[in-house]
Specification:
By secondary structure, the protein is α/β, with parallel strands linked by helices. The chain has three domains: 196 residues, 3-Layer(aba) Sandwich (Rossmann fold), CATH 3.40.50.720; 82 residues, Orthogonal Bundle (N-(1-d-carboxylethyl)-l-norvaline Dehydrogenase, domain 2), CATH 1.10.1040.10; 134 residues, NAD(P)-binding Rossmann-like Domain (Rossmann fold, 3-Layer(aba) Sandwich). The protein contains 16 helices and 14 strands. It has a six-stranded parallel sheet, with helices on both faces. It has a six-stranded parallel sheet with strand order 11-10-9-12-13-14. Helix 11 packs antiparallel against helix 12. The model has no long low-confidence stretch (mean pLDDT 97). The chain binds nicotinamide-adenine-dinucleotide (NAD). The site of nicotinamide-adenine-dinucleotide has 27 residues, from helix 1 and helix 5.
Length: 435
């Protein structure tokens, strides 16, 4: 099929490349000229394992076209996917749909032909209806608006696209399901569940799904607070409750606040959608509050570990992205923790395998180090914030001779017994301290 992705970010680029890889011709459009220029030079503007190779393969095979020419891309395609951002509006919980509506208007004014427009962006329930109103107002008829929310996770995005648990298609026109099933046949034949529902249903599934996952993370994070007070290992709790099939073991790892480009904005978005409909989603509201408060608990813990006065203390961060295998910094705990510690006079350094060098360059007392060793060598405290694979086997004794070195592991990456054997002063989340 001939497809067009409007927005070549984390979702548009990965899904566009993967659609090309299963034999479709895909136009990836972005208004950001530098992104498109990079892509045409064979360089991915985002860090996602395996993506560069897949882009090169499909670009060379002429199945993948990167362009800023939306009109040409739309007219060359049968199905157009909206993959633009839907951030939170500044100073509110509401979803900013301006990028979606702008791209819809651009599509409509670009073509006179019949097109299927699919919202892959996460949009509030009823957005498809609003888009139809816009089209009607412009006295146009030949567009079919459907919803196909995306569930891929950064860092595992290619695998998630190829082997999704389910593909959700929401449409009020049942004839469309057949066409979308054909598009997704290569994934369905490998076991993906093809689930059809109303357009509103599909829109709401995405928000409900993200809010549920955020709730699960927040629940185990709060339980980990209790574990710290009661000298219980939260990993035992995760295993003990996660072995119950009704609960399931995933998303039960205690750690820092959830971050990234989706959970924070989608939980807020869902609350605002509910409020608009005069529904009180009290659970989701509590989740948002608890998550926002989590960074304060971590900073309190840091003071407990190295004292209330952190002036001139050397603190090294391992990882600053919100999760491993991505360069995405949106709503990462590091964005709050690093400025806080620098303001208190600590000398902060950081290293991240994604190469996020410039993120904190404007902050006094903060510097990027090129590798793990340089970053950790003189530190008083090492904070492990993101569980990149290359951090798993660090020999802290070898790279840091400071007898008072303390390690605060926010991802429970290291084995407690091994840390005890090595006589490390080691603090983690919801597990007994070693000091
Ligand atoms: N990032 C994820 O892991 C993820 C997962 C599932 C769903 N989503 C949803 O997918 C949507 C996109 O998220 P993302 O992370 O890919 O965003 P992103 O910010 O990485 O990418 C959006 C892209 O759209 C481009 N754009 C905006 N308006 C445009 C226009 N009119 N024409 C052409 N290009 C335009 C921007 O320049 C940008 O490159 C959001 O609604 C998000 O909630 C994201």
């Amino acid at each position: 099929m001939k497809l067009c992705m409007i927005g070549t970010g984390y979702v548009g680029l990965v899904s566009g490349t993967c659609f090309a890889d299963i034999g479709n011709q895909v136009y990836c459009v972005d208004k950001d000229v530098s992104k498109i220029n990079k892509l045409n030079l064979g360089i991915s503007p985002i860090y996602e394992p395996g993506l560069n190779e897949l882009i090169k393969k499909n670009y060379t095979a002429n199945r993948l076209i990167f362009t800023t020419d939306l009109k040409k891309a739309v007219n060359s395609s049968d199905i157009i996917f909206i993959c633009v951002g839907t951030p939170t509006k500044k100073g509110s919980l509401k979803v900013d749909l301006s990028y979606v509506y702008k791209s819809i208007k651009e599509i409509i004014s670009s073509t006179k032909n019949k097109k299927i427009i699919v919202t892959k962006s996460t949009v509030p329930v009823g957005t498809g209806d609003e888009i139809e109103k816009i089209i009607k107002k412009l006295k146009r008829k030949n567009f079919e608006i459907i919803s196909n929310p995306e569930f891929l996770r950064e860092g595992d995005a290619i695998r998630d696209f190829r082997y999704p648990d389910r593909i959700v298609i929401g449409s009020n026109n049942k004839k469309i399901f057949k066409k979308m099933r054909t598009l997704y046949t290569p994934l369905i034949s490998k076991g993906a569940k093809f689930f059809t529902t109303s357009r509103r249903g599909a829109e709401l599934i995405k928000y409900a799904s993200n809010a549920f996952l955020a709730t699960k993370i927040t629940f185990i994070n709060e339980i980990s607070n209790l574990c710290e007070k009661t000298e219980v290992n939260v990993e035992d709790i995760s295993l003990g409750i996660g072995s119950d099939n009704r609960i399931g073991s995933r998303f039960l790892r205690a750690g820092p606040a959830y971050g990234g480009s989706c959970f924070p904005k989608d939980t807020k978005g869902l609350v605002s959608i509910a409020e608009k409909n005069k529904i009180n989603l009290s659970i989701v509201k509590s989740v948002i509050k608890s998550n926002q408060n989590r960074v304060n608990l971590h900073t309190k813990r840091i003071h407990k570990i190295i004292g209330s006065n952190v002036r001139n203390k050397k603190i090294a961060f391992l990882g600053v992205t919100f999760k491993p295998n991505t360069d995405d910094m949106r709503d990462s705990t590091s964005l709050k923790m690093i400025p806080y510690l620098c303001k208190k006079g600590a000398k902060v350094s950081y290293y991240d395998p994604s190469g996020k060098k410039k993120e904190f360059s404007k902050i006094k007392n903060c510097k990027y180090e090129n590798d793990i060793k340089n970053n950790c060598k003189n530190a008083d405290l090492i904070i492990l914030l993101t569980e990149w694979d290359e951090f798993k086997t660090i020999d802290f004794k070898k790279i840091n001779k400071n007898k008072n070195l303390r390690i605060y592991d926010l991802r429970n990456l290291y084995n407690l017994d091994q840390m005890k054997d090595k006589k490390m002063k080691y603090y983690s989340v919801g597990r007994p301290d070693i000091n």
